[in-house]
UPF0489 family protein
Amino acid sequence: MRNDKYIKPPGAISQRLSHPYSKRRTGIDISIFNDHRYAFFFWNNWTQKLIESDSINYPPSLVTLDWHQDLVYPTDGEKESLKELNLNSNKDVALYSWNNLSHMNDTHIMSAAYLNIIGDIYVHCRQGSSENSWKNEQLIDLYGQVHTVKKFKEYKDLEHCLLDSDENNVYFDIDLDFFTLNNPLQIGGGNGNYTYLPEKTIKEMLKYDNPLMQWIFQRLQGITIATEPEHTGGLLKSNRLLNIINNLWFQPSLFTSRPGQWDKETQWRHLRTKIK
């Protein structure tokens, strides 16, 4: 197949942006898609490029916000198929992400860790039926390296952990269903209608001058966003949540293209008035 480098999973879109910490640094990609398992494709694509360019010596760690933990380990059979996967072929990885990763969208993180595509894992989520389900875990990857998985009920606990860590590079991953509170589609998510975090709370969590967001942006190597409208109360609700992030971070909107007029294309809102 020709032009392998342009292949992406079905329906996924990406945009190259300047780095949010400084325009002088190498830019990063933001990728948006429906099914969360497609994040596997983009993490791999970015990690392979970073390694090829000698930008990193080890894969970025993952910081993810999600209603679910999405931490299902690959089975022995899945490990064998992962070993055979050609990580330098976008066609193969896109097809694997679509066809082989669980359609429950809960195996992409540990599969990526098993192949050392990502480093350690930090999950802020709502899913957890017992105290045991919140304990730290470890996965030994294909090469014998240990990946630590840390789970957090509270945003402040995630913030304190990361600000005290020695992480240098991260991928930031958001599943929009994280912003639901009462979620009747999820086990333990309540009954009745969907309810959501207030827009003000979402903005406080994700605004640039929040200490955790400054920490993430300084170390950022890519952003993945799963819209998953069937888990957020419908397409319009999912789009509304995405629009909150879009308006908070960017001006003009994501995917605004004006050939020859770079100043009118998508830029980080905080960098429009900040000279670096």
Remarks:
- The beta strands are 13-17, 28-33, 61-66, 121-125, 137-140, 146-152, 170-175, 220-226.
- The mean pLDDT is 93.
- The chain is about 30% helix and 15% strand.
- Residues 235-249 form the longest helix (15 residues).
